Amino acid sequence: MKASGIILAGGKNTRIGTEKAFIQLRPGWTLIQNTVEIFQKLFPEIIVVTNNPQAYLKLGTRVVEDLIKGKGPLGGIFSGLCFSKSELNFVVGCDMPFPNSHLINDILQKPVEYDVVIPEINGKTESLFARYSKNALPVILSHVLKDQLRVQSILPGLRVSKVLQEEIDAFDPEHLSFFNVNTQADLKKAKDLLRRSK
Question: Looking at the domain 4-197, which fold is it?
Answer without folding.
Answer: Spore Coat Polysaccharide Biosynthesis Protein SpsA; Chain A (3.90.550)
